[in-house]
Design goal:
The complex is a heterodimer of chains A (about 300) and B (about 375). Chain A is about 35% helix and about 30% strand. Chain A has 11 helices and 14 strands. Chain A has helices spanning about 45-50, 70-80, 95-105, 110-120, 135-150, 165-180, 195, 215-220, 235-245, 265-275, 290-295, and strands at about 5-15, 15-30, 30-35, 60-65, 65, 80, 155-160, 185-190, 200-205, 210-215, 225-230, 250-255, 255-260, 280-285. In chain A, helix 6 links the parallel strand 7 and strand 8 (about 185-190). Chain A starts with a strand and ends in an 8-residue tail after the last helix. Chain B has helices spanning about 5-20, 25-45, 65-75, 85-95, 110-115, 130-140, 150-155, 175-210, 210-215, 220-250, 260-285, 285-305, 315-325, 325-340, 345-370, and strands at about 50-60, 80, 100-105, 120-125, 165-170. In chain B, strand 1 (about 50-60), helix 3 and strand 2 form a beta-alpha-beta unit. Classes of the chains: A alpha/beta (about 300), B alpha/beta (about 375). Chains A and B meet through helix 2 of A and helix 9 of B.
Chain lengths: ~300, ~375
């Protein structure tokens, strides 16, 4: 399979801070790749380097087979980049924004293309509303529509669903999967676990370095994280007590279930034995969420 | 909520202070601007301009003529150089090279000696009345300049001055200030409307976050800049038409020059402002900086261009600074065309500096337009 994105050893520093520090990344064509990591881990800068908005200080590679430094203008014609912050014109209507984008990309049959995308994204009812008056979910949808209007081969989405309600997020992801089915490659950064689980592959960044990558299942399995689960009542109190014990990296309540996780099996067993008193504990396979929280709580230990 | 909280106030103050510190450009502007302007305008502006360029037309050089010229020089208002012909005098006045022409009549000495009270004609460029006001007023004291030279017989009759000055206020005979102001106003309004809006054009994109998207799309800098400029050219012209129409109808402003030529010239002047605005816009990091930059050029445009104060009254270095400003030249052209009926030959010396300025600034704008977010 050919790689839509193939970059090696990317570096970018702002002043003293190494924002991206030797990142090597490969995304196959047609893949939905989730880009994860704490705030400031270099996700946005990496995405910007991929579309030529930021020049790497070191390293390089290709995007859709074109050099990310030399061919940036050509790459832009074939990618759709959705910025983290809504970056369309709030004083233009939905249709006007899309028409502007269509015109900038010199799309043939502009009117029809705009009409088609409005229909596909379900924006018909809002077509004449000012973009500034749309709610967050609709703004994201408009932005997505604008990004795919010129039928790009690669979508770079930078936290596309931040601050959007669950239903809107679900619909947004349905659209992304729908487009991936047509052969579109997607690189999407997110903080949401449910979204990470919908990705074909996830890549986890920390301090500008790639820490973990693989399918969500692989990442969970390879984490070597040990997870125990118990059900019962008054779990909040138990969780609070467990968190203070050595070896317990996280203790979280999900409704009537309590999850604890850590790297040290013996310590975890001691902890459940001493405090988990009335509860019955089962070891469960680690969930992606447990793994990600584990990773997020370990800054600095990132060097892979 | 519950009144003034000093701690909240301090928190905000700290934040503001950090922001100011992290924006050294604005900080420098805040400090440097008033200081610079104080020095610049404190010395440059002269409500009593002296050493005004004056031409001398004299058929025969005589004793009294020399005395009179010396007296004119001694007032400090006139810098006199002899002229060869009336044509040269006309041209000098039209170009703005000369503000006055002194015409000594033929047989001046004999007429004075005979007690005929000959008239010395002073042609004055009255397009800017304030430029010539004090100089013209000083003429009244000069009628006694010949007293030491003329024969006793004539001197003894104090009621009869040996000669008299006749001031001929050219182009603006009633010395109406409004006729001077309107051409200036055209230039000022054009600058205000075109410079400021374009100055904000690109910084606004940056601040609203739309710049990132714009950069990610396949648009070229020159396209963005031109597209942002063109609407304001139209708006600028509309303003010109309105101002001139009102000036003609209400104030009786003469339009003596060619209207198509004026339109063309103003187009170039508008272009110079837009180019400057776009350049500021690409350099400034935010709208605040952009506005500061625009203001920085606006004040000199007001004060050094000859709009508010007579250009010739400024010291030489201030005049040099003024020569760089497009407004200075635009002002001369518009005044000259409206009031003097100047044609292309007369305005050409002021046209090319505007064109050159526009070109240089446009190159800087294209060069400083950032195509990445770095």
């Amino acid at each position: 399979m050919t790689a839509a994105i193939d970059v090696r050893d990317l570096h970018k520093r702002y002043g003293e801070r190494r924002v991206v520090d030797g990142l090597t990344l490969s995304v196959a064509e047609g893949e939905i790749c989730g880009f994860l990591g704490a705030n400031g881990s270099g996700k946005t800068t990496t995405i910007r380097m991929l579309c030529g908005l930021v020049k790497p200080d070191g390293g390089g590679g290709t995007c859709l087979g074109m050099d990310i430094i030399r061919d940036a203008p050509r790459i832009r014609l074939q990618i759709g980049y959705m910025t983290q912050r809504f970056s369309f014109y709030e004083d233009l209507t939905v249709t006007e924004n899309l028409d502007f984008v269509a015109a900038v990309y010199e799309i043939a049959n502009r009117r029809e293309a705009v009409k088609a995308i409005i229909a596909r994204m379900g924006l018909a009812d809002r077509a004449d509303q000012l973009a500034g008056q749309l709610s967050g979910g609709w703004k994201q949808r408009l932005a997505l529509a604008a990004c795919v209007l010129h039928k790009p081969k690669l979508l770079l989405l930078d936290e596309p669903t931040a601050g959007v309600d669950a239903k809107a997020r679900r619909e947004f992801w349905d659209l992304i999967h729908d487009m991936a089915a047509d052969g579109l490659t997607v690189l999407v950064s997110t903080h949401y676990m449910d979204e990470a689980e919908r990705c074909g592959r996830i890549v986890y960044l920390s301090d500008g370095k790639l820490v973990v990558q693989g399918t969500p299942d692989e990442v969970a399995r390879d984490s070597k994280l040990v997870t125990f689960r118990a059900t019962g009542t008054d779990l909040d109190l138990v969780a609070r007590a467990l968190r203070t014990l050595p070896g317990v990296e996280s203790a979280a309540v999900f409704g009537s279930a309590l999850h604890i996780a850590g790297m040290d099996r013996a310590a975890l067993e001691r902890a459940t034995g001493s405090l988990g008193g009335g509860l019955v504990w089962h070891e469960v396979p680690p969930q992606l969420e447990d793994v990600l929280i584990h990773l997020l709580s370990q800054p600095g230990k990132a060097a892979a | 909520m519950n009144g003034f909280s000093f701690r909240r106030f301090l928190a905000v103050l700290r934040k503001e202070w950090i922001q100011v510190r992290r924006d050294p450009f604005t900080l420098r502007m805040i400090i440097a601007l008033p200081v610079m302007q104080l020095f610049l305008f404190g010395y440059a502006i002269n409500a009593d301009p002296k050493h005004l360029p004056t031409g001398l037309l004299a058929v025969d050089h005589s004793k009294y003529e020399r005395t009179l010229v010396a007296a004119l020089k001694n007032t400090g208002y006139y810098d006199i150089r002899p002229l060869a012909s009336e044509a040269e005098a006309e041209r000098g006045l039209a170009d703005g090279e000369l503000l006055f022409v002194v015409n000594i009549p033929p047989n001046f000495d004999r007429s004075v000696d005979r007690g005929e009270q000959p008239s010395v004609l002073m042609d004055a460029d009255a397009t800017d009345p304030s430029a010539i006001g004090n100089a013209a007023a000083a003429l009244a004291g000069l009628v006694s300049a010949l007293d030491r030279d003329v024969p006793q017989a004539i001197q003894s009759s104090p009621a009869k001055a040996p000669f008299q000055f006749q001031l001929h206020a050219r182009y603006n005979p009633e010395q109406l200030t409004v006729l001077n102001i309107v051409p200036g106003l055209i230039c000022i309004v054009l600058t205000m409307s075109t410079l400021f809006v374009t100055t904000l054009a690109i910084t606004r994109e940056t601040e609203r976050g739309t710049m990132e998207n714009l950069l990610a799309m396949p648009v070229r800098p020159i396209e963005v800049m031109l597209a942002k400029v063109v609407p304001y050219i139209a708006i600028g012209y509309a303003q010109v038409v309105i101002i001139i129409a009102i000036a003609v109808v209400v104030f009786g402003l003469p339009v003596r020059g060619s209207v198509p030529l004026l339109t063309f010239v103003l187009g170039i002047f508008i272009a110079s402002n837009l180019a400057l605005g776009i350049t500021f816009s690409t350099i400034a990091r935010n709208q605040m900086q952009a506005i500061q930059m625009a203001q920085f050029t606006l004040l000199p445009s007001f004060l050094l261009s000859g709009f508010m104060f007579p250009f010739k009254g400024m010291p030489i270095w201030a005049q040099w600074a003024g020569e760089v400003i497009p407004m200075t030249h635009a002002l001369r052209i518009v005044r000259g065309m409206l009031l003097k009926g100047n044609g292309f030959a007369e305005i050409a010396p002021d046209l090319w500096p505007i064109g050159a300025f526009t070109l240089v600034v446009a190159v800087i704008a294209t060069w400083s337009y950032r195509v990445t977010l770095d």
